[in-house]
Each structure stands twice: as C-alpha cells, then as structure tokens.
Amino acid sequence: MDFYSMTLPALEEHFTRQGDNKAKAKKLYKAIYRSSQAVEDISDLSDKTKRSILDSFTFDLPKQIALQDDGETAKALLEFPDSSRVETVLMRHDYGSGLCVSTQVGCSMGCAFCQSGKLKKHRNLTAGEMIAQVLFMQQYSDIKHISIMGIGEPLDNFDNLKAFIEILSSPYGLAFGGRSITLSTCGIVSQINRLTEIDCAFNLAVSLHAPTNELRSQLMPINKRYNITDLISAVKNYSENTSRRIAFEYILLDGINDSMEQAVQLADFLKDLNCYVNLIPYNATDSGQFKRSCNADLFFDTLKKQGINVIFRREFGGSIKAACGQLSAEYD
Ligand code: SAH
User: Fold this and answer.
1) 175-210: per-residue pLDDT in tens?
2) Separation of 290 CA from ligand 1 center, angstroms?
3) Which residues line ligand 1 (CB under 6 A)?
4) Are 194 and 219 in contact (CB under 8 A)?
C-alpha cells in the first residue's frame, strides 16, 4: 500500500486491525509529514513496529523526468510507476510559494481553450500521487499555498480528492489550513453539492468564462449538463455553509466574451453572491483558436462600476509553458 494515500483514520484502522495501538498512527504521521523523517529514523517506535510499517507500506516519490525553472516558476514533469506522467508547478511569491497540483492524468472535460483538455483522461490520480507532488516540490521550496488547478478536473475524481485534502489539511499531516488551499472546478454541480463532506473549509474557484449558457456551452461542454443557474446556486450553498468567498475565473478571449455588454451580464448574476471575479489573460495553446483580449481594462472597469470585486490574475510561467491552461505533460 502507498503510505501517502492513507488518511489518518485509515491509518489508525490499519494499526487497530493489526491488534496494535492506534496512537502509533499519529506518531508515524507526525514523523513523516511534520518532521520529514524516514521510518528507520523514528526514535519512539520499536524496531518491530518499524519493520511492520515498512512491510505494509511504500513511501515512493515519482520520478523526475524534467524540471524547468525560470527563477520565478518551476515546472516538474513527474512519472509514476505505471509510466503515467503529470506536471506540477511551483510559483514563487514574495510572501512564499504556491504549488499547483494535478489531479488526473489527462482530462476529459474538453474545454475549448485549454491544452490539458486535449489530452483525454487516462486515469485518476490517487490521493498519494497528489500528496507526492507536494512532497516533491517541498524539496525545493517552503510551500505556503496549494492550488488544486493543474491537469485534470478535481471533482471528476472526488473520493481521491477528498482523501488528498484530508491528508493535506490534517494537523498531524501536512497541516495546510483551509485558507491556504484553493480548488478550481469547471462546475460539476453534483460534486460541488458534496464538497461539505470534506472536513475542511477551503477556497473554491469556479471556471466560469462566459456570461450566457449559449456561449458557455460552446466553450465548456460541461455546461450542457449543468447550466449557469444550477452552478451558481450550488456555489452559493457552499459559500453560505463555509463563509468562504467564491472566486469566479474568467479568461478574457478577444471578441468572444470580453465586451462591455457581457461584463454587465456577468455582473447581473453575480451581484448577490459573496464572490469576486478573477480575470485571467489567455495563454496560447496549440489550437491557435483564441487571442488575448484587447479590452481587458474596460471589462475590468465595467465590472467594478457594477459593484463587483475584481482582480487580474498575476501571470506565471508563460516562458516555460507552465501557465494556466498550458500544461500538457509532454516533454521534448
Ligand atoms: N479543471 C479545473 C482546474 C484546471 S484549469 C478547472 O477547470 O477549473 C485551471 C484554470 O486555468 C481554470 O480556470 C481554467 O479555465 C484556466 N485555463 C484553462 N486554459 C487556459 C488558457 N489557455 N489560458 C488561461 N487560463 C486557462
């Protein structure tokens, strides 16, 4: 079994099943996650216990295939034992680093503007494979924030995502507080309704990208299943249950979704929500289908005038194809 996929309750159950003291689970968790110790070096566990732990669990990190670093952003291409590859991206801010974690090998959401969507989904990542991305990048930097926004749709992999966030946020585990975790989804409403099953009030970001169902369905196939009204109502519930402010991500695409009229439409249905809009500059993908908006400032000002909180997303990693929407897990 992969140790990094084990939530604390699952590990406690493992020790109990072995007829052992479940308090060892917390000891082991703390040694591995809080003090980065190897099992062999944990001083307050007996040799017999350590041997049994090493017989039961593996503690392997993925293989590094490539690492590109432009000084501000570092992108690692990682390979798991079945040859599946994903990318994980470190962004260095003045106040500390953020890590963008992938949740699937490929993605089957098929958003028109996204490179990852062209990969098709090969499989889900396990919770341990998501944790391993964090442990891998922690070797290079002190990570303060986790964005679940890499390759894949996290809510298309709910059970593993839930375990990942539980391990990530456990005070005995990696101890990231809910405020330092952000999950981004394309809007799988049935799974947004289940988010409160996860015992951690993290930040929710929603990829919106269009103010009408007609346009959103053209850009994002998921909208044909869950329309904007259903999405907003699910997100509103999450915000009310957790008191978290929702981020709506909106890529500005030239001549497609960036007019003043569209800004007003967008403001109209966001008015009563505890939210802000995160405007994202479009990053080029292989499709060559879209262009960056020339109307970004006017769109921003129009939203502001309508009373909507709005920010521009800071750009990272364009020169090493590590920016939003550019991750392809390819290497040449
Ligand atoms: N599947 C999740 C998370 C991965 S994408 C989601 O859809 O939210 C992370 C963010 O990058 C999303 O907001 C996505 O819409 C955005 N993105 C995708 N392609 C992009 C591109 N070409 N330029 C800029 N942002 C892009």
Assistant:
1) 999 999 999 999 999 999 999 999 999 999 999 999
2) 14
3) 113-114, 149, 153, 184-186, 207, 249, 251, 280, 282-283, 285, 324-325
4) no
